[in-house]
Amino acid sequence: MELFIQYSVSGLSTGAVYALVALGLVLIYRSTRILNFAHGDISTCGAFVAFALLSLNVPFSVAALASLLSGAVLAMAFYFGILVPAQRRDATHLGQIILTLGLGLILQGAVAYFGGTEPQSFPFPLSEFKVYKVASVTLSQLSAGTLAISLLGCILFYVLVQRTKIGLAMRATSENLQAAQTLGIPTRQVLALSWGLAAALGVLAGLFLAPALLLDPFFMLEPFLKGFAAAILGGMNSLPGAIVGGLILGVAEALTGGFLSMAFKNSFAFIVIIVVLLLRPEGLLGEEFKERV
Amino acid sequence: MDLIESYKEELQLIRKPWTRIWVGALVVAVLLLPFYGPEHVTYIVTIIWLYSVGVMGQNILIGYTGQISFGQAGFLAIGAYTFGHLIRLEIPLSLSILGGGVAAGLFGILVGFPSLRLKGPYLAIATMGFGVAVYQIFVNSELLSGGRMGLSIPKLEPWFGMSSVMFSYYFNFIFMLGFALLTYNIISSYMGRAFIAIRDNDIAAEVIGVNLTRYKLLSFAISSFYTGIQGALYALFVGYLEPNMFNFMVSITLFVAVIIGGLASVEGSIMGAAFVVLVPQLFSDYKEMVPVIFGVTILIILIFEPLGLAGRWMKTRVYLRNWPFR
User: Fold this and answer.
1) Which chain B residues have a beta carbon less than 8 Å from that of A270?
2) Which of B74, B55, B58 is CA-nearest to residue B144?
3) Which of A2, B228, B242, B270 is packed most tightly, with the most Cβ within 10 A?
């Protein structure tokens, strides 16, 4: 039982990061129906920006803010510079998804070129080795911080989407683009903001993963795929679903890793994807699939 | 682009006499390459032939049937390892290669089942999940992957006293040619028409009597059969296997080849294969820049030339044929 709680708690902290990644993916999918294959690479870029600033002795808070901002700017630039012109030229839906794949490849190469492919350790104010003990559960400072910040990020994001005017515009745009345009909502700007926000969430996840995973150009690939799995599990067009899916996936993964086998742990997420897609393609909290004939 | 007047003409691979001449010249040039080309070039072109097989297969799935897939690395790995294990059991070469293709094809049917319910991006994720899961199973299972040292595969003794480079060139060229002709046949048969109908509108296709279940699964099976054969040829060519040869990047590379070469085009598949093989060779001093080149090319192709290199080639031909008129 103690082990069970221990695994669950550490799973919650990884799950919170998956939730952040999944939120970014769902946010973009909901409003534009585009799967963002560059999501992981944008976060990697952000983490490398933070790393570069930190090695110039910039204080951590400034570096973190700058990295979030750089990720957001990058995503918005992609939206305005590539996606909008492609849409003007009547790019197919699939074509737009492949465009994000292209962006991902470009960023991956650029990071490898400027940052080097050697794994580097990421200086982080929270330590992985300092542990807190609550009752019988031990929790490292890093995972406690990850859990706290991720949940805080989720809550702030929820407030933004549900309680502010911008959030209302975002929801309207994702609900019905034409109607939103007719009502005078500047949908381009709103969508660009969605891209920026999603990228910032991804970079936030990247910042917390970097100290645990060592920084190299591919370190976000796996968390990104897990975030995908979480988003699918929760439902691709449901924001609360992304959070729930992320947490469930994190806990389930930690439990399989602890009780079944470590080797199986990493394949687990992909089995989840396939099973969910086969049994309930709309995800746990998603709406029914609607098929127009 | 051509005016077709009879069914016989439609089935012809080459319609204009001039085309016949230059295609013939091209085939002769390619056939004689090992005799006049430097060994290095022959070696690289061999890799292009080998890749073409898989890219053509993926083009059947992605270009003709319109089912997006990111699981190519999984099928490659299954094909390559099945071949590797079979040939180590001293099963004849032809049967081993076929075995690699068939094993991948069977898994293709398995992965095809989600495609009956899923579309577009969802299918992309499901197949991607498959590709990564296969990779991780091979990484984690020493029994399947042959352990830390990798699985070594006995090299083939060259036939007819050829040098080994020349032999593997012709060996892979024959496969490429065979599969190219097979692909032409598939796409101009009922099956190919069914694939195209499914791509353009699956509900309409079902209404006019295309069995969706059968043809979607067939498309998956055929494409993964091709990819499995590519895996087997690759295993034979390289001489050893390790799981890292089949990571997610490999799926992306094959996908990029299909997109850049041109959707729904056999010549495009070969051009795409040439692109993804040549770019890393030409830019071997700037290894990190290879994904950047792939990415930029994708952006350019998708925005300016959605039909890929094959589309550009076709437009150039039409332009030259009608020159100086437009």
Assistant:
1) 129-130, 132-133, 136
2) B74
3) B228
How long, in residues, is chain B?
326
B136 contact residues in A (CB cutoff 8 A): 266-267, 270
DSSP assignment string, A166-232: HHHHHHHHHH-HHHHHHTT--HHHHHHHHHHHHHHHHHHHHHHHHHHH-B-TTTTHHHHHHHHHHHH
CA of B105: how far to CAs of A105, A270, B78, B89, B230, in Å? Answer: 29, 21, 9, 21, 12
Full-model pTM: 0.86
Q: Would you call B240 helix, strand, or coil by DSSP?
A: strand
Between A and B, how many residue pairs show a Cβ–Cβ distance under 8 A?
Answer: 124
The answer on pLDDT for A287 being more than 80 is: no
d(CA A221, CA A213): 11
Contact B298 A105 (CB under 8 A): yes
Which of B299, B300, B304, B307 would you mutate first to test chain A, the one with the most A CBs within 10 A? B299
What are B179's strand-pairing partners? none
A48 is written with which tokens?
A: 């490398």
Could you give phi then psi for residue B84, rounded to 5 degrees? Answer: -60, -50
Mean predicted confidence (pLDDT) in A75-102? 87
Asked if pLDDT for residue A60 goes beyond 70, the answer is yes
| Selection from A113-127, B132-146, B228-242 with the highest mean pLDDT | B228-242
CA distances from B114 to A191, A235, A268, B118, B191 (A): 31, 17, 18, 6, 21
Other CB atoms within 10 Å distance of the CB of residue A145: 18
Q: Which CATH architecture has domain A2-117+142-279?
A: Orthogonal Bundle (1.10)
- By residue count, chain A amounts to 293
Q: Write down the domain spans for chain A.
A: 2-117+142-279
Distance between CA B114 and CA A276 in Å, rounded?
A: 10
Q: ω before B34 within 30° of 0 (cis)?
A: no
List residues of chain B with CB under 8 Å from any CB of chain A: 68, 113-114, 117-118, 120-122, 124-126, 128-130, 132-133, 136-137, 140, 203, 248, 252, 255-256, 259, 286, 288-299, 302-303, 306
Three-state SS at B3: coil
Contacts of A232 in chain B (CB under 8 A): 122, 125
ipTM: 0.82
When scoring B72, B116, B125, B130 by the number of chain A Cβ atoms within 10 A, the one with the most, hence best to mutate, is: B125
Written as one letter, the residue type at B58 is Q
Closest to B280 (Cα-Cα) out of A3, A264, A289, A105? A105
**CA triple B80-B86-B87, angle to 5 deg:** 90
pLDDT at A82 over 60: yes
Closest residue in B to A113 (Cα) is B288
Domain definitions of chain B by residue range:
38-250
Structure tokens given for A37:
């294959």
Token digits for B204? 């309409």
